[in-house]
């Protein structure tokens, strides 16, 4: 009888220990301790080397919160997106924008630049269509990978101008501006233009303001297409210095025929200038369409494509500011 009572007491004790253990294990799970990976094998693989990527106009979006980079590129009448942790190895994340049949843009899909603005992501892209002049359209998404949708189903640049390479710049008063180029095929001497945007980016405010012409830079030469000869402006991008002055990177063709990056300075700190051109191009490796960004480590970087041919690839290098100018690290 005594042995039976001892046996029953042992069972009760073991049962009590089991209940306590399960309860504590449940507490640990709720606290996030020893929690198994809910998606085993979900770690992303970055298997595409930057040196193997053949793309133009590489614009890098830095996601500092998640410590990653995004690169949106022309994907043959759509936009593709790539992701990286180190700017060296990338992952193809698929399509970030696929136009519907009613979308106004039918061709080009050039220079898709993505910006984080007022809690959303905005993609500025150059498009054209039959009987419609080339222009920049603005798309919007909640996520840096997309999917993007048209903010307005038309170009935001002037409908009676041939325009390209629209870029977003937000000034010290948080006023948004679109920078773009009045194309040399129409203007002859290509122009860089600024125009104020409404706060929601749906349309422009006021008239276009020509900031400078390609011929204002002494290093720029002529190019020809068919019977048309002129000077190119491409890819305006503004970077603000600590002293409030502005540097604008833009691209054209040098007198030796190479595609190259120029830089203009606004000492006033105003997007409207006046803009002073550097006498020499920033680079000499037949590459351009550049932008600047601070990487995850805080270093100032430049990205552009080179060479300017069907073998182009992204060039990503560290740069420095020296005497108010951009200098590319060797």
Largest sheet: 5 strands, antiparallel
Based on CA atoms alone, the radius of gyration comes out at: 27 Å
Question: What proportion of the residues form beta strands (DSSP E)?
Answer: over 45%
| Share of helical residues | 10-25%
Give the quaternary arrangement of the chains: single chain
Which consecutive residue ranges, at least 5 long each, have pLDDT under 50?
1-41
Structural class: mainly beta
For the residues shown, what is the average pLDDT? 90
Question: What does the overall shape look like?
Answer: globular
Secondary-structure element order, as H and E?
Answer: HEEEEEEEEEEEHEEEEEEEEEEEE
Span from first to last CA?
90 Å
Record field, number of beta strands? 23
How many helical elements? 2
What features would you describe in this structure?
There is one protein chain. With 330 residues, the protein is mostly beta strands. Helix content is 10%, strand content 46%. It is built from two helices and 23 strands. The strands form six sheets. It has a five-stranded antiparallel beta sheet with strand order 1-5-4-3-2, with no helix packed on it. The longest helix has 29 residues, at 2-30.
Describe the structure concisely for a colleague:
The chain has helices spanning 2-30, 184-187, and strands spanning 48-49, 60-63, 68-74, 79-84, 89-97, 107-117, 120-129, 132-141, 149-150, 163-170, 176-182, 191-197, 204-213, 223-225, 228-230, 234-240, 246-253, 259-266, 276-277, 288-294, 300-306, 313-322, 325-328. It is mainly beta and 330 residues long. It is globular.
């Amino acid at each position: 009888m005594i042995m039976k009572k001892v046996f029953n007491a042992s069972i009760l004790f073991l049962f009590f220990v089991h209940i306590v253990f399960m309860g504590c294990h449940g507490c640990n799970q709720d606290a996030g301790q020893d929690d198994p990976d809910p998606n085993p094998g979900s770690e992303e693989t970055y298997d595409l080397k930057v040196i193997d990527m053949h793309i133009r106009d590489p614009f890098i979006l830095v996601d500092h919160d998640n410590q990653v980079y995004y690169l949106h590129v022309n994907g043959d009448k759509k936009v593709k997106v790539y992701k990286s942790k180190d700017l060296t190895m990338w992952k193809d994340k698929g399509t970030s924008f696929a136009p519907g049949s009613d979308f106004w843009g039918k061709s080009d899909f050039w220079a898709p630049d993505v910006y984080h603005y007022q809690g959303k992501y905005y993609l500025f892209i150059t498009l054209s269509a039959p009987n419609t002049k080339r222009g920049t359209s603005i798309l919007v998404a909640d996520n840096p990978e997309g999917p993007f949708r048209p903010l307005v189903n038309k170009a935001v640049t002037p409908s009676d101008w041939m325009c390209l390479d629209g870029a977003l710049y937000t000034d010290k008063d948080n006023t948004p501006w679109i920078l773009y180029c009045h194309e040399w095929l129409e203007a002859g001497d290509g122009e860089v233009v600024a125009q104020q945007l409404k706060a929601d980016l749906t349309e422009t405010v006021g008239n276009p303001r020509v900031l400078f012409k390609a011929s204002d830079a002494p290093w720029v030469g002529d190019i020809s297409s068919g019977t048309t000869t002129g000077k190119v402006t491409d890819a305006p991008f503004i970077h603000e210095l600590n002293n409030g002055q502005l540097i604008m990177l833009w691209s054209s063709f040098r007198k030796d025929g190479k595609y190259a990056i120029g830089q203009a300075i606004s000492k006033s700190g105003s997007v409207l200038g006046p803009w002073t051109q550097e006498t020499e191009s920033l680079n000499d490796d037949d590459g351009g369409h550049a932008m600047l960004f601070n990487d995850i480590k805080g270093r100032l970087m430049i990205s552009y494509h080179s060479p300017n041919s069907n073998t182009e690839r992204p060039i990503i290098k560290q740069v420095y500011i020296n005497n108010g100018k951009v200098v590319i690290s060797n």
